[in-house]
Amino acid sequence: MTNYRRYRLDGGTYFFTVNLAERQRSLLTERIDSLRDAFRVVKNAHPFVIDAVVVLPEHLHTIWTLPQGDMDKM
Asked: Cβ distance 20 to 35 under 8 Å?
């Protein structure tokens, strides 16, 4: 696996994209309620700010801001 160099900033804001393994599927929009529930569960366990989310049928883009002191979880 590639070892990417990343600049890690305590309490930083990050953009990332997540793709379904099966890009022909449209589970993210078909099961949007399950996705919302998953976001809620994770946010309750790990406080962070969801600045933006774009959900498409087979992938999503999101921008999250981590709280100060959250560097050790990256």
From this structure: no
Expressed in angstroms, the distance from the first to the final Cα of the chain is 17
Nearest to 60 by CA among 13, 3, 19: 19
pLDDT digits (tens, 9 = 90+) for 8-52: 667 888 899 999 999 889 989 999 999 999 999 999 998 899 999
Its pTM stands at: 0.74
| CATH number at 13-73 | 3.30.70.1290
Contacts for 63 with CB less than 8 Å, ≥ 6 apart: 13, 14, 15, 50, 51, 52, 53
Residues whose CB is less than 8 angstroms from the CB of residue 50 and which lie 6 or more positions away in sequence, other chains included? 39, 43, 62, 63, 64
